[in-house]
Amino acid sequence: MEKFVKQYDVRSYECDKDSRLRLLTIFNLMQDMADTHADLMGVGYDACFQKGIGWVGGNYHLRIHKLPKWREKIILKTWPTAKTFVTGIRDFEALNETGSILFQASSQWVLIDLTKGRPVAVAKNLGNYELLPERAIETQFSTPPLPERTDFEKKFFVRYDDIDMNNHVNNAVYPVWAAEAVPPAFKACHDVAELEVSFKKPALSGDVVLIETQIDDKTTRHLIKSETNGTVFAQVAIQWTVHSED
User: Fold this and answer.
1) 192 and 240 in contact (C-beta within 8 Å)?
2) How many Å from the N-terminal Cα to the C-terminal Cα in the chain?
3) Is the dihedral of CA 192, 57, 107, 6 positive or negative?
4) pTM here?
5) What angle do CA 3, 143, 236 make, to 5 degrees?
6) DSSP per-residue codes, 2-68
7) What domains does the chain contain, in order, with CATH numbers?
8) Element (H, E) at 83
9) Could you tell me whether strands 190-199 and 53-64 are parallel, antiparallel, or unpaired per DSSP bridges?
10) Sign of the C-alpha dihedral, residues 176, 167, 209, 200?
11) Which 3 state secondary structure label does DSSP give 233?
């Protein structure tokens, strides 16, 4: 097994006010890389759909060293690194042209029966596909702790544009919601350095999402839930660093 590698040019519409790659784009790029490589391996969307099964995102652990800027060329890498009885683990790296690491991530995906919505055995349904046992981040995908108090809260309305082809809010949206659920003054002078997210239930069109945030210096905890019935959509933990325009 070799890593799947792709070169990518950072586009202007994928950048924030400081011309740096957006958090949303990072997660979108990782999803695209995962989809493409899984297809090449024969365990992607089409192959799974024919068997009535599919991969559902369970966890992400992202570590950002430096965000690339507009017009920079970056090298993206992904590979399947491990699996459990019902999950597959896939890691990612992004490097600049000199080989310095920009960001790294590890993700865990649950294989489910699309009709029953229940996890199914990976090996039984997809065979023993090849792995590269190298970790970008050593993580156990622990569920981020719940806030013990609410220092800040923010409400989001699910937009039509948030819904993906699985008819629920795309996984890339939840980390962005969490990173936005801090006071504006805090957001203005801090950048995301590390983020862990555990997905629980998918938010749907029409949902009103409430995020409760606990802030402890440069660490925040976020509970993302339905304002209507309290259904938990995701739990997120973020480590922040002081904002830099470099």
Assistant:
1) yes
2) 36
3) negative
4) 0.96
5) 85
6) --EEEEEEPPGGGB-TTSBB-HHHHHHHHHHHHHHHHHHHT-SHHHHHHTTEEEEEEEEEEEES---
7) 4-126 (3.10.129.10), 152-242 (3.10.129.10)
8) strand 73-83
9) antiparallel
10) negative
11) strand
Q: Which two tokens stand for residue 127?
A: 């065979």
pLDDT digits (tens, 9 = 90+) for 168-227: 999 999 999 999 999 999 999 999 999 999 999 999 999 999 999 999 999 999 999 999
What does the DSSP 8-state code read for residue 69? B
Q: Among 126, 140, 44, which residue's Cα sits nearest to residue 85?
A: 126
Task: Confirm if 21 and 68 have CB atoms less than 8 A apart.
Answer: yes
Phi, psi of 222 (to 5 degrees): -135, 130
Classify burial at 34, counting beta carbons within 10 Å of its beta carbon; exposed 0-12, middle 13-18, buried 19 or more. Answer: buried
Q: Tens digits of per-residue pLDDT, 196-208? A: 999 999 999 999 9
Cβ atoms of 232 and 202 within 8 Å: the answer is no
